[in-house]
Design a protein that fits this description.
The protein is α+β, with helices and mostly antiparallel strands. The protein has 23 helices and 25 strands.
């Protein structure tokens, strides 16, 4: 790519800005060395890498290259036998750790980011250097004792020698005899040896070696002879430590040197990844998108008549009054080079994104040359630079600040002649400088090139400049070279309008504010605003009128038509803008309403789901507690108080459960209302009292006339008329007769005696008293019709148990007896079965 053009289009500023996103020197060097490529596969690969990095950093904004360092100089030194400093070795370690982290990060992302993963896969396998450096150096770059056994021994000896030396010196300083001789009771160093400060007037009082004296000469820093050997030993050990440390560093440096190629390759791979990350960050800040690079196709013919003759009148005379000797030239064949430029919303990347005006540039399959006209400072040059710079960026693998889908051909070369080409050293004027550069471009350009010419034909006589500009355009057109031109010559407007392959374009000017709008309009030439501007600035009307009179009527009609076209286009653009804004607002409102409805629906569903989950959780909790309570009841061969507590808990839980109508259907056949009333008071799971047994239990089975009641571990079947809900008020005297007629069936034995309960507790009583109570209890239990009873006598010494069981074996109402089960109290309980009537 032409270096002069890169400088003219300020490509180096793009690279400098891009380099600001890099993390270390190696990737910065890559950035500054970036150049556009002529290979479309290479350019597309770079574009794809940038796109992958943008996607990667979007999902992982904190991703970096870690602690990678530019270790190229250190590796090169080690390769040539140099010894690296600890800080250099730590940089090597940090770089290898960063490489390992990057490789692991991309290890499982092959399907999402294939190009980045392929690059990360080029990291070399572990070299063992990280572990070796970690064993040798700490994070501050200090060599560890574990670096070698010899170093550990030397440092151990140093500590012993230091302690001995300090101990000796401390005793000398603390000695009362030496106190008056010393300037201060301190120990210091001179030339690496420990000394004490001796007053100059007492020189010789302590046999010693003088190493230094104070500025005033009042203090001598002396090394007592008694510690010379200790100082020598300590110093020798320090030198041995230094030599061993240097040997260790040299050994590590040798390992670095042996792996130099792999280390340099690692740095290069990390730098390439960081370089790609920098391109992605630059793209994100520019709000750029990937360019669609189009290969240059085959040339296509565009026939046109190119007339290079001077204008002549009817007599055949030319404009200069001489007879024309040149006949009309034959039709020239113009070939479209097969290039494409379709940039939508293109912005100059170096201008402030908040103020830059985007332009649309299109050269399709019928045009490959564009002539831009308009006022000075109107944005013509910026528009041309934008196209040229975006072409360079696209071929460099950078995203371009334009709308997604923008297309541009990949050019072998881009040539630009922009700005002041004046050269004092070469004695060239501005015009001469431009012409020299254009000649150079004409020699090098071909149909695979893009040529950008600013202010073509300027800097000289307007008539000659216009003729030269037209000739240059014709030459470039015939050679099929894609060309972008800016000019002030009105002749080129007509040329562009009537020549196939060429299109007019203009930058607009606001006559009300007298400021350019910087909008680029394709298809229309720029208007001549000189007289309008002069009139608006206050030029006298008669002068304006005289000036108009000098303009040919054809030119005036053309300008009027051009003004009307621009007005119509402005009106159409405003209407289109209003329609677009209205559409945008409608879509925005629709999106807001949809989002609001979605949010309301989500909230509704969330509330319902939360309520359902809470209800399910509460119901599950109640059910679990109910099951646990029932399990306790089933295990309950316990004192009645415990059973009652569990039953009350069950009753509480049952009340918390949703109510269910479990009332039995009314049975026909003349049933008494009192029976119906009784049925309505009990239900499955109800806590009831068996009137004949004077016991409480829970209904576990319910029939038409009978119910099965769980009383502890015992199940009793009783008539429903014998059941009374716990807490129900006793029947009145009017119903007493009916109550007396009710019968409880317990093992078929009718009874009117009140039950004494299923348990008798004899613990703590003397045997004589216990046996008396036992006899009375068994008699009442037999009369009440109980099928079995439990006698609690405790374990103790076993005497009361033997007495109870002997009495049971002889009692006429006891059918049999046995010890209690494991859950009933074991040998501390005896269960007796009573005979039935």
């Amino acid at each position: 790519m032409d270096d002069k053009t890169l400088n003219t289009l300020e490509y180096h500023k793009i690279l400098e800005r891009l380099a600001g996103y890099t993390a270390f020197a190696a990737s910065r060097d890559k950035t500054l060395a970036l150049r556009p490529t002529r290979n479309i596969d290479e350019a597309n690969r770079r574009q794809a890498e940038t796109t992958e990095a943008v996607q990667f950093l979007t999902t992982r904004p904190d991703a970096t290259i870690g602690g990678a360092r530019d270790i190229r100089a250190a590796v090169d030194l080690a390769r040539h036998g140099g010894v690296l400093m600890p800080v250099d070795l730590l940089d090597v370690k940090s770089t290898l750790v960063a490489a390992r982290s990057l490789a692991r990060q991309f290890e499982k992302l092959t399907s999402q980011f294939p190009l980045l993963c392929d690059l990360a896969a080029q990291m070399p396998p572990p070299l063992g250097l990280v572990e070796a450096i970690t064993r040798t150096l700490n994070d501050r770059g200090e060599i560890l004792d574990s670096a070698s056994p010899r170093l550990a021994q030397i440092r151990h000896d140093i500590r012993i020698a230091y302690d001995r030396l300090m101990s000796k010196l401390q005793r000398m300083v603390a000695d009362p005899k030496n106190g008056p001789l010393l300037q201060e009771a301190i120990i210091t160093q001179r030339d690496g040896r420990y000394v004490i400060p001796l007053r100059a007037e007492f020189k010789g009082r302590i046999r010693s070696v003088v190493h230094d004296q104070s500025a005033s000469g009042a203090t001598l820093f002396v090394e007592p002879l008694v510690i010379v050997e200790l100082n020598n030993e300590y110093r020798e050990l320090q030198l041995a430590e230094r030599d061993e440390e240097r040997r260790i560093l040299a050994e590590l440096s040798s390992q670095v040197g042996m792996n130099a190629e792999l280390l340099l390759h690692t740095v290069n791979v990390i730098a390439e990844i960081d370089f790609i990350f920098a391109r992605a960050k630059f793209s994100d800040d520019l709000k750029a998108s990937a360019a669609v690079l189009v290969p240059i196709g085959k040339p296509r013919e565009l026939k046109a008549t190119v007339d290079r003759r001077p204008k002549t009148d009817e007599s055949g005379a030319s404009d200069d009054g001489q007879p024309s000797t040149v006949n009309r030239q034959p039709t020239a064949v113009i070939r479209h080079p097969g290039t494409v430029i379709r940039l939508s919303g293109a912005r100059h990347p170096l201008l402030d994104p908040a103020t830059v005006v985007a332009v649309d540039v299109e050269l399709d399959d019928q045009t490959f040359s564009m002539v831009v006209t308009g006022p000075n400072t109107g944005g013509k040059t910026v528009a041309l630079k934008t196209v040229g710079l975006l072409a360079l960026m696209a071929q460099s693998g950078l995203h371009i600040p334009a709308r997604s889908g923008s297309q541009i051909s990949l050019f072998n070369d881009i040539y630009a002649d922009i700005g002041d080409e004046q050269s004092i050293e070469q004695s060239l004027s501005t015009f001469s400088g431009h012409i020299t550069n254009i000649i150079r471009i004409l020699k090098r350009a071909d149909r695979h090139s893009l040529v950008i010419l600013d202010e073509l034909g300027a800097g000289t006589d307007p008539q000659e400049g216009a003729a030269l500009a037209r000739a240059l355009l014709s030459h470039l057109l015939e050679r099929g070279i894609t060309t972008l031109v800016t000019t002030h010559h009105p002749e080129l407007k007509a040329y562009a309008h009537g020549t196939p392959g060429v299109v007019n374009a203009s930058v607009e000017f606001d006559l009300h504010t007298l400021r350019p709008t910087y909008h680029l309009t394709i298809g229309l030439p720029g208007r001549s605003n000189a007289l309008a501007i002069a009139k608006r600035l206050g030029m006298p009307d008669e002068i304006i009128a005289d000036a108009r009179a000098e303009i040919s009527p054809d030119d005036q009609r053309a300008e009027s038509m051009l003004d009307e076209i621009h007005r119509q286009r402005d009106a159409s653009r405003k209407a289109r803008g209003a329609a677009d804004r209205a559409k945008f607002e409608a879509e925005k409102l629709h999106a807001e309403l949809s989002a609001r409805m979605d949010k309301i629906e989500d909230e509704r569903r969330a509330i319902l789901e939360k309520a359902r989950l809470e209800a399910d959780a509460q119901l599950q909790e109640l059910q679990e507690e109910l099951k646990e309570a029932r399990r306790q009841l089933q295990r309950a061969r316990q004192p009645l108080e415990v059973v009652q507590a569990v039953e009350e808990k069950v009753e509480t839980l049952q009340e918390q459960m949703p109510t269910v109508d479990r009332r039995p259907k009314t049975v026909d056949g003349g049933r008494r209302s009192t029976v119906n009333s009784q049925r309505s008071t009990v239900a499955l799971g109800s806590k009831v009292r068996l009137k004949t047994l004077n016991m409480q239990g829970v209904i576990i089975s319910l029939g038409e006339d009978e119910a099965e009641v769980q009383v502890g571990m015992m199940r009793i079947r009783a008539r429903r008329t014998d059941l009374q809900a716990v807490g129900e008020v006793e029947e009145t005297a009017d119903s007493g007769q009916q109550t007396a007629e009710k019968t409880a069936v317990v093992s078929g034995l009718p009874s009117t005696v009140e039950s004494p309960g299923l348990e008798l507790d004899l613990r703590g009583k003397l045997a004589e008293d216990a046996l008396s109570d036992l006899d009375r209890y068994l008699e009442r239990a037999y009369l009440a019709g109980l099928p079995w009873v439990r006698i609690i006598h405790g374990k103790g010494t076993g005497k009361l148990r033997l007495a109870v069981r002997e009495a049971l074996s002889q009692h006429p109402n006891v059918k049999s007896f046995e010890g209690g089960g494991d859950k009933e109290g074991g040998d501390g309980v005896t269960v007796a079965k009573l005979v039935s009537g």
